From TrEMBL:
Domain Threonine/serine exporter-like N-terminal residue range list: 8-246
Chief place of localization: membrane
Membrane topology (UniProt): Multi-pass membrane protein
Pfam families assigned to the protein according to its UniProt record, in alphabetical order: ThrE
Name the UniProt record assigns to this protein: Threonine/serine exporter family protein
Record's keyword annotation contains Transmembrane helix: yes
Length: 251
């Protein structure tokens, strides 16, 4: 297979991994193994927002390519599909057309619908509210707040605002909704509702992957992921804190 085609396949696989929240070592290892499966020697550097790949073969000049990745989220299903794809290539080299078709299918793989994601968010808020000693009323209040917050967060994301503002407003909604719930029904504890509802916003996978990258020695990408998660946590905390301050000053 031609060198440019191998680079295209390897970088596309790496792009999907990076865009869907994979760890740095997994991205670099997958890209290099795909190159080796076609008889090329590759070196890959994964950064927080892009990939750098250098490939060479005996008697052929080294070629370096870059792929930038802007939109990122967490999708473990697509990561698993790429893992299976790389194992398939290592066992049996696929043609360029076959490999590209599989990668295109992975990119187009169905996502969970908005209604399913809203249901999962509401269930998460309800369970964690009960887990943190909340009452059944606290859990029901958390369901309503999670539903409203998740829908509004989706709409804000579509408008293209920067991430800090998105999560700040989401935290403000959770804090304000929890306070309003307690004001309407005195038996509801706003602190329990807040504790359960914020679980739908916390970037657990990103934070965990950042720590794993640091432990594996990938300090630049690990620190970037860690601080990305911290920015989200700070934004949510600031939003909730703002709503509580407004409430206390109005009392």
């Amino acid at each position: 297979m031609e060198l440019k085609n191998v680079i295209d396949i390897a970088l596309t696989a790496g792009e999907i991994l990076l865009a869907n929240g994979a760890e740095t070592y997994r991205i670099e290892d997958t890209v290099v193994k795909i190159c080796e499966a076609y008889g090329f020697t590759g070196e890959c550097l994964s950064m927080s927002n892009g990939l750098l790949l250098s490939v060479e073969q005996s008697g052929v000049d080294k070629v370096t390519s870059m792929k930038k990745v802007n939109k990122k989220h967490v999708d473990l299903y697509r990561i698993e599909l790429i893992n299976s794809f790389s194992r398939q290539i290592c066992e049996k080299s696929l043609s360029y057309e076959e490999a590209k078709k599989i990668l295109d299918d992975i990119k187009k793989a169905p996502k969970f619908t908005l209604s399913v994601r809203i249901m999962a968010a509401c269930m998460t808020g309800f369970i964690y509210t009960l887990f943190f000693n909340g009452s059944l009323l606290d859990g029901i209040s958390s369901i309503i707040i999670c539903l409203i917050t998740y829908v509004i967060l989706e709409k804000i994301s579509e408008l293209g605002f920067f991430q800090f503002l998105e999560f700040y407003l989401s935290g403000l909604l959770i804090g304000g909704g929890s306070i309003l719930s307690e004001m309407l029904i005195s038996s509801i504890n706003k602190h329990n509702v807040i504790t359960g509802a914020i679980m739908i916003l916390l970037p657990g996978v990103v934070l965990t992957n950042g720590i794993k990258d640091i432990l594996y020695g990938d300090f630049s990408s690990g620190v970037a992921k860690f601080f990305e998660a911290m920015i989200v946590i700070i934004a949510v905390s600031a939003g909730i804190g703002t709503s509580l301050i407004i409430y206390l000053k109005g009392m």
